[in-house]
Design brief:
35% helix, Rossmann fold, five-stranded parallel β-sheet, alpha/beta, 227 residues, single chain
Length: 227
C-alpha cells in the first residue's frame, strides 16, 4: 500500500482530506502541529479525527510561531468577528506568516523518511479567508521545491501535493465528508473558542463552516456559544 503524509489540524477540511486519502488507497500518516496557536483545542480534535479515520500513525510536531507573532492566531491581536466578506486579495490578520510552507516542509521531511511521494492538505481556494498559501500556484511551486530540494527528489521521486478540496465550495466539502462517513462532531474549526471549548460562531472560520452546513442542508453537530 502506498504511503501518504496528511496534514491534520483537527478542522473540517483536513478531516475530509484524510478520509479522501484513505478512499484513494493510501496508508495515511497524520501530522499535526502545536505551533503556539490560540486555538490549541484543535489538537484534541486532530487526535480524535486521526484515530477515527484509521491513520497508521499520528504525530504532533511542536514549533513556536509565537516567537514571530504577526497573526491573531499566534499573538495577542484580537480575532476579527462578524466581518463582512472580503476580497480574496485582502489577507486577514488570521493569516499566519508562511504557515503552510512550514507545515508542508515538515510533511515533506516525514514523507522522505517514510519513502512516500504523496502529501495531502485540506487547502481550499474558494471558501477561504484570503490566505495566499491556499492557492494552486503555491501548491504547484511547493511540488517543484520538493523535486529539487530533497535527496529523494533528485534521485527521481516525483512528489505530489494533493489538495482534493481546492476547488470545492464549503457545502460540497461537507457533502463529500458525509459521503465518506466523516464524524463532524470530532472536528474543531473555531479560531477563538471559549474556555469551555465552545466555538464562537463569529470568526471567519466559524461563519464559513456554518454557512457551508446551511447550504448543504445539514446541521453542524458541534457546540457553539453563539450561532
Amino acid at each position: 500500500m502506498k504511503r501518504a503524509v496528511v496534514l491534520v489540524s483537527g478542522g473540517l477540511d483536513s478531516a475530509i482530506a484524510l478520509a479522501i486519502c484513505a478512499q484513494e488507497g493510501f496508508e495515511s500518516y497524520a501530522l499535526s502541529f502545536d505551533y503556539g496557536q490560540r486555538h490549541r483545542l484543535e489538537l484534541i480534535s486532530a487526535r480524535k479525527v486521526a484515530a477515527s479515520l484509521a491513520a497508521r500513525d499520528h504525530r504532533v510536531a511542536t514549533i513556536d510561531l509565537r516567537i514571530f507573532g504577526g497573526s491573531a492566531l499566534t499573538s495577542d491581536i484580537a480575532v476579527p468577528k462578524n466581518r463582512e466578506t472580503k476580497s480574496a486579495n485582502e489577507i486577514p490578520i488570521t493569516y499566519v506568516p508562511a504557515r503552510n510552507t512550514i507545515f508542508l516542509s515538515y510533511a515533506l521531511a516525514w514523507a522522505e523518511v517514510l519513502g512516500a511521494a504523496d502529501v495531502f492538505i485540506g487547502a481550499n481556494a474558494i471558501d477561504y479567508s484570503g490566505y495566499p498559501d491556499c492557492r494552486p500556484e503555491f501548491l504547484s511551486a511547493f511540488e517543484h521545491l520538493a523535486s529539487v530540494g530533497t535527496k529523494a527528489g533528485v534521485e527521481g521521486t516525483k512528489f505530489r501535493v494533493h489538495a482534493p478540496l481546492l476547488s470545492m465550495s464549503k457545502a460540497d466539502i461537507i457533502r463529500k465528508g458525509t459521503e465518506l462517513g466523516v464524524d463532524f462532531s470530532l472536528t474543531h474549526s473555531c479560531y477563538d473558542p471559549s474556555a469551555e471549548g465552545l466555538a464562537c460562531g463569529k470568526c471567519d472560520s466559524c461563519r464559513l463552516r456554518l454557512a457551508g452546513f446551511r447550504e448543504a442542508g445539514l446541521t453542524d453537530p458541534i457546540r457553539y456559544s453563539e450561532r
